[in-house]
């Protein structure tokens, strides 16, 4: 099905964000593993897999619309140097993804591509209710129980 070029381009921009998030989660998960934070490794490795699924959904939709997925473009990564910075960096990235998803969903509405909008709604719900909420929770825990107590709880 020949798709709208503006939507294909917007989907490729979303893809760049998902691929970057995937890269950042991959690096952060391996850093957590190296530092002995098993629980953080498990969760962030799971997030890496989720981002891979999001990227896959975007690729499938771009291909369905007879576009070419751009696998080379990335947004800049922000690799943290310690656990709070890593969590905040990941949260900032998720906030950007939420904003970008909402903007592309609005474009889909304008261009009357309701199937793409519906697919993006699922990604938005996952990003808001799973990824973002969990990261906000972790930073809140650090504030409430202190960094050392939080880190100890993540050694698992």
UniProtKB/TrEMBL annotation:
Its EC number is 1.16.3.1. The gene is bfr_1. Iron-storage protein, whose ferroxidase center binds Fe(2+), oxidizes it using dioxygen to Fe(3+), and participates in the subsequent Fe(3+) oxide mineral core formation within the central cavity of the BFR protein shell. Residues 1-146 form the Ferritin-like diiron domain. Coiled coil: none annotated. PANTHER family: BACTERIOFERRITIN (PTHR30295:SF9). Belongs to the bacterioferritin family. InterPro entries: Bacterioferritin, Ferritin-like, Ferritin-like_diiron, Ferritin-like_SF, Ferritin_DPS_dom. SUPFAM superfamilies: Ferritin-like (SSF47240). It comes from the Bacteria. It is an enzyme of class 1 (oxidoreductase). Keywords: Heme, Ion transport, Iron, Iron storage, Iron transport, Metal-binding, Oxidoreductase, Transport. It holds the Pfam family Ferritin. This is Bacterioferritin. It catalyses: 4 Fe(2+) + O2 + 4 H(+) = 4 Fe(3+) + 2 H2O; Fe(2+)(in) = Fe(2+)(out).
């Amino acid at each position: 099905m020949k798709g709208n070029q503006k939507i294909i381009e917007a989907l490729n921009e979303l893809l760049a964000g998902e691929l970057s998030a995937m890269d950042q989660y991959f690096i952060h998960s391996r850093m957590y593993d190296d530092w002995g934070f098993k629980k953080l490794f498990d969760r962030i490795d799971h997030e890496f897999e989720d981002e891979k699924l999001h990227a896959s959904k975007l690729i499938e939709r771009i291909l369905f619309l007879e576009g070419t997925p751009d696998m080379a473009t990335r947004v800049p990564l922000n690799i943290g140097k310690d656990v709070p910075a890593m969590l905040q960096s990941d949260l900032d990235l998720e906030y950007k993804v939420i904003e970008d998803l909402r903007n592309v969903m609005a474009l889909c509405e304008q261009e009357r591509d309701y199937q793409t909008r519906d697919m993006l709604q699922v990604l938005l719900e996952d990003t808001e209710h799973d990824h973002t909420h969990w990261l906000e929770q972790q930073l809140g825990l650090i504030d409430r129980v202190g960094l050392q107590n939080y880190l100890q709880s993540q050694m698992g």
